[in-house]
């Protein structure tokens, strides 16, 4: 008997230790208790800084920022609450109209069918009503909570129009959602912040595990930024919120709220408008990570700095690009009029500077520019400075072969960044920040385009060096260098880029075949395409075999495909691809891309003697250019970036090619071998 009691005591102690310790990324044990989500449209970190009551909560919480991007162009409160309802991004508001919330009368959300129709109209695939259909007792307070907890027919149960602490404390109120109301733009904002702090105190007094989050912007034209996220009380000291859907300390997304409320329970099987079956939840349960923070003021400043990190890159991208292009135009005009050595060197430098820009967008994050005075201007200066430094080093050290140095640098930098978990992507000009919500980890389309160009040019150079020894060795070099890029770009947890490996794999295989055989037949071309498709499919299926909460984009796509829920995804991606043609810039990019591809296929038709001589100079020029065109074409046809993807590759490739041709120009008596090295 004593032995049995001893065993029971040991087992009980072990169970307690398992629940109360664990790793920093483990789910807090207190999540087993009542979860109370308090949603506040428009709650920013500036509000926390301005409110002593909210500031006091910081050291009592795991904290972070929440991305509230939904399916539509605006994230009004109704969009945010519908997204929580569906567990995936939903579309609730009407573009170009003020934010408006539906009324709730007699236990029904008004115009519910209109919201269902809106999901079908915009192909969101969002099964609104899924959270309310779970059958688990979840209480709701306030209009937004009614939207989040409405069933598929628009009816809502266990709901009250105003917050009631006594109702929240009842045992039959398993979890709860509280709409604290949108913060007013100006007048009465301080009082609204005080109300939020009071709601948090009342929810904690009722035994709740409180998740205080901004669920949307308060107005359709509000300043877009990540909002506040706090979880009280903290486990093991206050740390940083995160989730497996963002994989970034201090960052979660709105759909994580739904997954956290469900706490591992299976989501209800409902039929979303326009889809045969509801897809998986887009979010993951929220947990904590990182070191303990104990200085509320420092935490708030860190969150405000993080907002700068995510907000400044997009507007500064245009400013930097415009500056570099203007410098190129002026330098080329000077060269055309003077034809002097100085004007040639200057033109070459500005062209190389555009190539250096493709390095600077990533290396700039190492400078921590968002903590400098005037973060936007600091980023502008840092990117221009690194671009100029890269161009100068390449021009001085490598002279005519500077193009190769910049391509190789891009390849190596992104390989290392991918293996390290893409830290250089966070807040870079080529990354979709949490405001856009396109990608929270891994390589985006712009990054992939840079990596693809660097990998294919590097592979072409290595193959040219080995070609005189053995075509087989040269082809193997292409497979090794290109294969490394494919692995880093596609591996879950590294680049995690499904669309990228679809485009890069056939390009590498084609280049390897042309290196080995010198030409390719139609049968071999089909075989290369099939081999690439099988390789990508195998990677996606292996990722699908992982647990649902550990899958990346690959496995999630396969799951939707097997569930027959892929049509809405494909339609949305197609809509994103064609949106570039709503203005003249998209058509200009398409013309430029087609012109470059034709120059690759029909080099003798290009009105440039230096280009024709370059094309015929070495055997690996043609395979490299054909591989670049193949990658760009496949990426344009099968990627949601559309024509932007090959346009980015063209923006990297053409200035370097022109710089190389200008730097290699010599009198006619000089042989090509003296001015064009095999590194081409």
Question: In words, what does this structure look like?
Answer:
By secondary structure, this protein is α/β, with parallel strands linked by helices. It is built from 25 helices and 12 strands. It has an 8-stranded mixed sheet, with helices on both faces. Strand 3 (104-105) and strand 4 (108-109) form a beta hairpin. Helix 11 (313-338) packs antiparallel against helix 12 (341-363), helix 12 runs parallel beside helix 14 and helix 21 (584-601) packs across helix 24. The radius of gyration is 28 Å and the shape is elongated.
Rg (C-alpha, Å): 28 Å
Unreliable stretches: 1-32, 666-680
Q: Major β-sheet, in short?
A: 8 strands, mixed
Which shape, going by the Cα principal axes? Answer: elongated
Helix content: 40-55%
Distance between the amino and carboxyl termini: 82 Å
Gist of the model:
The chain is α/β, with parallel strands linked by helices and 680 residues long.
Chain-wise SSE layout:
Layout lengths: L1 H19 L14 E5 L5 H6 L1 H7 L3 E6 L9 H10 L17 E2 L2 E2 L2 H10 L16 E4 L1 H7 L9 E2 L4 H4 L6 E5 L9 H17 L3 E5 L13 E6 L7 E3 L8 E3 L1 H8 L24 E3 L6 H16 L1 H26 L2 H23 L11 H24 L3 H18 L25 H23 L3 H20 L7 H20 L4 H23 L8 H10 L4 H12 L5 H18 L7 H9 L3 H18 L5 H20 L8 H4 L5
Parallel strand pairs: 1-7, 1-8, 2-11, 5-6, 5-7
Antiparallel strand pairs: 2-9, 3-4, 8-9, 10-12
Helix pairs in contact: 3-10, 4-6, 4-9, 11-12, 11-13, 12-13, 12-14, 12-24, 13-14, 14-15, 14-16, 15-16, 15-17, 15-23, 15-24, 16-17, 17-18, 17-23, 18-19, 21-23, 21-24, 23-24
